[in-house]
Design goal:
Blueprint: E1 9-11, H1 15-31, E2 66-69, E3 84-88, E4 93-99, E5 109-116, E6 119-122, E7 137-141, E8 146-150, E9 163-166, E10 171-173, E11 188-192, E12 197-201, E13 212-215, E14 220-222, E15 237-241, E16 246-250, E17 258-261, E18 266-269, E19 283-285, E20 290-294, E21 306-310, E22 313-317, E23 331-335, E24 340-344, E25 347-348, E26 356-358, E27 361-365, E28 370-371, E29 374-377, E30 387-391, E31 394-395, E32 402-409, E33 412-413, E34 421-422, E35 432-440, E36 450-451, E37 455-456, E38 466-470, E39 480-485, E40 496-504, E41 507-511, E42 515-516, E43 526-535, E44 544-545, E45 549-550, E46 555-556, E47 559-560, E48 565-571, E49 579-584, E50 591-596, E51 603-608, E52 616-624, E53 630-637, E54 640-644, E55 647-649, E56 653-659, E57 666-670, E58 676-680, E59 687-692, E60 700-702, E61 704-707, E62 710-712, E63 715-719, E64 721-724, E65 727-728, E66 733-739, E67 746-751, E68 754-760, E69 767-772, E70 778-786, E71 792-799, E72 803-806, E73 809-810, E74 815-820, E75 829-834, E76 838-844, E77 851-856, E78 863-871, E79 876-884
Parallel strand pairs: 47-53, 55-63, 65-71, 73-79
Antiparallel strand pairs: 1-26, 2-27, 3-4, 4-5, 5-6, 7-8, 8-9, 9-10, 11-12, 12-13, 13-14, 15-16, 16-17, 17-18, 19-20, 20-21, 21-22, 23-24, 24-27, 25-26, 28-31, 29-30, 30-34, 32-33, 32-35, 35-36, 35-37, 38-39, 39-42, 40-41, 40-43, 43-44, 43-45, 46-48, 48-51, 49-50, 49-52, 52-53, 54-56, 56-59, ...
């Protein structure tokens, strides 16, 4: 025996049988159409076959894919052909009975052989009535749970028409055949589950048959006759095709035609590509999903080929690995106990004239191939990364293996993706990606789709580069808008939504809107917004906070005073090129001015204020005539005052009149350095108070009216004032009081235009001093001129002439000393007279303007007499009385 190629041989003289077959075959081949066609590529099965046997048994672990050499028939088995066989499910064994001898004079077999658990053993002995025979038909009937065998031929002729039943323990004779069911050899029978009958077809007796018989477990009945063009035949292949639910009849008697029987009707199938063939058996392989035969006779001799009918087409099965011998009339059936197609026995057709009988047993196993595992990497892909699959170890499958790939996203198959790498595009973040791999062997047997564990496409966070607020210089009537920039998502096609949180002075005022309504803020508030990008899968990116903006008023003004123009009033955020009414203290208040805006809705104007207006905070309301915008803005009214009269000298009374104070507040009014006079502002913020001016320096200054609401500083002009004595005497001091001069300035004193003395004023421009009058008797003009301020004041001072008589009484003859001066014109003539006209003497004044003379009282009557000194140059005279005493 050649290992892996030849089965166990038992020799014998089979020449007569095969010689006859060869002669018939030669005739048949002359009529045939030619050699068998080349094998076709096997199609893929419609669905994946299960890994385990469809009949519930695990495959034998030691068996590889393809043909495996099993246990040979025992040594006491005398090889025969034409044996009958069937699988017996109750004992999970193959039952083989009888067979033809090597020549017609040799022994015919009526032995039963059983194959179970991988071993052949002898079965129960046949009863005497069950004579030796070959060419019987056999099938298992599940309805009666017995094997049914019919016909066969032994040494005697014609063939038998007996029915025998085997229950796994013994053979018993079945029901008698009806009269028209003739004995036959070379017929085939199989159980048809669709009609729940055993169907027997063909065979031959005195002549070949093409009739059909049905067995229901108790009796035989005639079935539907085949069509006229289906010739009678014997020793052909027949099986029930589970996938098509038909009986398949193939070849026999040198034919190559194929027929289907659906229990009622016959119709032609695909002809044998192997050419005319007989002496072969046909079996349905549920793993392959097709009808298989091995070798058989024809054309000319047995071919070393295995063929399968699947999907309406014949396919030649290439051999890989060990392979049985070619043979004639070998047994073939599906052995569910071993999940394989079992091939055994037959005759080796090797030009030996039928000399070699085969006792070998082969099991063809083809389990669906599959991979142990499928893995997808990377474990956390993103939408920019390709996904690659890898597989674990491979098992099962016959011949070259084809890998099929497919990808699933969230359980749905991705169209047109059949490569081991899935490129970016069909998946999005949070998608669950799985890879599936299916192996298909050379016979088209498909394993299960092995699925990887899912990997989840990671969702990468979206980004926003910055968020700004517009307008950047907002007003109280302006909605604020958040403006994101650089919004992006690294995941292709992922939509990003911005979510916002507005904060006003640090407090949250609005969320999830890109706009903040003006009702949420007021002037002076600090507003900022935080934008957070969120993609369509709920993934948030890093939040970005804008720079804060400060909310301003629509109208910006500063301070104003009643009755004056409020200057540089600016307006913002009104309608473009519209008229805006500026109203005082209320949207319906007094219209102070109507202005027009520019193209940006802004304006600048000076606004006149009423003459009477309480001090403190007021509002201007801009009312857009077109837009309807009511835009406010505060301004402050500060006090204003006036002094009347406003030209003042020290000690002069004046009246302060003020406006723009807060009603009811106390106003403290004072000149610089002077006492304070308090007044209370009336309901309109006005005050009035009388004051006396204290000494104030030239050229003047401001009176101060101070209140909590503000200060008014009306101006006044200082008047100079010179106070002194109206009279005096020469070489004596006169008092000097000056006011209204410059502070700390030099004041020059002039007497009759001649500078005589200077003074320094104090801080209030005042002088309190004395002036020495070194001059003559009579009126003089004293002038006080400020050297820096230029203030000049004059005063007339009369220096009165005086004369002294000593004594000023006495009798006649009394010597009287007359003195006078200083004050006379120095060295000038002074006339001395008495009694108003009598000259006494002309006196000459000395250099100090003094005169002196002794006069003796002349005779005169008692009483007063007047002595007079007269200076003609000065025009001054002075008199003094002397009393004459008797």
């Amino acid at each position: 025996m050649q290992a892996g190629r030849r089965g166990t041989r038992s020799t014998g003289a089979y020449a007569p049988g095969l010689a006859l077959i060869g002669l018939l075959w030669a005739t048949a081949t002359l009529l045939s159409s030619g050699a068998a066609a080349a094998a076709s590529q096997l199609p893929k099965p419609p669905t994946a076959s299960p890994v385990n046997s469809p009949h519930g048994r695990e495959p034998v672990d030691s068996l590889g894919m393809g043909f495996n050499l099993g246990a040979s028939l025992p040594n006491d088995y005398d090889p025969v052909w034409d044996f009958a066989y069937a699988y017996f499910p109750p004992t999970q064994s193959v039952v083989m009975f009888g067979g033809s001898p090597r020549d017609r004079t040799n022994h015919w077999s009526n032995k039963t052989w059983l194959y179970g658990d991988g071993t052949w053993t002898a079965g129960p002995a046949a009863p005497s009535e069950l004579t030796a025979r070959g060419g019987a038909a056999m099938a298992f009937d599940p309805d009666i749970n017995k094997i049914v065998m019919f016909g066969g031929a032994g040494p005697a002729w014609p063939p038998s028409n007996e029915t025998w039943l085997f229950d796994g323990t013994s053979w018993t004779q079945g029901p008698a055949a009806p009269p028209d069911l003739l004995g036959r050899t070379g017929a085939e029978m199989v159980y048809d589950p669709d009609i729940q009958r055993i169907v027997m077809v063909g065979g031959s007796g005195a002549a070949p048959f093409n009739d059909v018989w049905l067995f229901d477990g108790t009796q035989w009945t005639k079935g539907s006759d085949p069509p006229a063009d289906m010739a009678p035949r014997q020793f052909f292949g027949m099986t029930y095709d589970e996938s098509m639910h038909v009986l398949v009849v193939a070849g026999g008697s040198g034919f190559s035609d194929v027929w289907y029987f659906d229990g009622t009707s016959w119709y032609a199938g695909p002809r044998l590509k192997a050419g005319p063939k007989e002496r072969f058996r046909l079996a349905y392989d549920p793993q392959l999903g097709g009808d298989v035969f091995f070798s058989g006779l024809g054309p000319s001799q047995a071919g070393l080929a295995m063929w399968m009918l699947r999907g309406g087409e014949w396919h030649r099965i290439r051999h890989f690995g060990d392979w049985p011998e070619d043979r004639v009339d070998g047994g073939i059936l599906w052995n569910p106990a071993q999940d394989g197609l079992m091939l055994f026995g037959g005759i080796l057709d090797d030009f030996s004239g039928g000399q070699t009988g085969l006792t070998d047993t082969w099991l063809f196993v083809d389990l669906p191939p599959q991979v142990a595992s499928v893995t997808v990497s990377p474990q956390a892909p993103n939408t920019s990364l390709a996904v690659q699959l890898s597989t674990g170890s491979r098992s099962n499958g016959y011949g070259p293996i084809q890998k099929k790939f497919r990808w699933l996203i969230d359980g749905h198959i991705v169209d047109n993706e059949h490569r081991p790498k899935l490129k970016p595009g069909p998946y999005r973040p949070t998608d669950q990606i799985q890879a599936q791999v299916q192996l298909v062997d050379w016979l088209g047997l498909a394993g299960p789709w092995v699925t990887s564990d899912p990997v989840t496409v990671v969702d990468r966070a979206p980004v926003v580069r910055e968020v700004t607020i517009t307008p950047s210089d907002p007003r109280v009537t302006t909605p604020l808008l958040a403006n994101p920039a650089g919004v992006d998502d690294p995941d292709t096609g992922d939509q990003v939504t911005m979510h916002y949180e507005w904060r006003v002075n640090g407090q949250v005022r609005g969320t999830d809107s890109d706009t903040l309504d003006p009702s949420n803020f007021q002037a002076g508030d600090q507003v900022e917004v935080t934008g957070t990008p969120v993609d369509s899968y709920g993934m948030s990116g890093d939040p970005v906070t804008s720079s804060a903006v400060t909310v301003g008023w629509n109208i910006v003004a500063d301070r104003g005073t009643p009755g004056h123009v409020l200057r540089s009033v600016k307006g913002f955020a009104f309608g473009p090129s519209e008229q805006v009414d500026l109203r005082l203290d209320s949207p319906a208040g007094q219209v102070l001015l109507t202005v027009g805006t520019d193209a940006s809705g802004s304006f600048t104007a000076g606004v006149p204020l009423p003459p009477v207006l309480p001090g403190g905070l007021h509002m201007l309301y801009g009312i857009g005539r077109t837009s309807g915008i009511v835009g406010p803005g505060p301004f402050t009214v500060t006090p204003v005052g006036s002094v009347s009269p406003s030209r003042l000298a020290a000690g002069d009374p004046t009246t302060f009149t003020g406006a723009g104070f807060v009603p009811g507040e106390t106003v403290a009014i004072s000149f610089p350095g002077g006492p304070t006079t308090n007044a209370t502002a009336d309901d309109e913020g006005s005050v009035s108070a009388s004051l006396v001016s204290p000494p104030e320096a030239a050229p003047g200054g401001t009176l101060t009216a101070v209140a909590p609401s503000g200060t008014a500083n009306p101006g006044y002009t200082t008047l100079g004032r010179f106070l002194t004595s109206d009279t005096g005497t020469p070489d004596t001091d006169i008092p000097v009081t000056l006011t209204g001069y410059g502070p700390l300035e030099q004041v020059q004193a002039f007497v009759d235009g001649a500078a005589v003395q200077s003074f320094t004023t104090d801080a209030s421009g005042s002088v309190n001093a004395s002036l020495l009058m070194e001059t003559t008797f009579g009126p003089h003009t004293v002038t006080m001129t400020g050297q820096s301020s230029g203030v000049t004041e004059d005063h007339r001072v009369d220096l009165l002439a005086t004369m002294n008589l000593s004594p000023n009484s006495g009798s006649v003859g009394t010597v009287v000393t007359i003195t006078s001066g200083p004050g006379w014109t120095p060295y000038g003539t002074v006339h001395l007279t008495w009694l108003a006209q009598d000259k006494i003497a002309d006196l000459t004044a000395d250099g100090d303007g003094k005169v002196s003379y002794q006069w003796t009282v002349p005779r005169h009557g008692p009483g007063d007499v007047r002595l007079t000194l007269i200076d003609d140059a000065l025009g001054i005279s002075t008199s003094s009385r002397f009393t004459i005493i008797q």
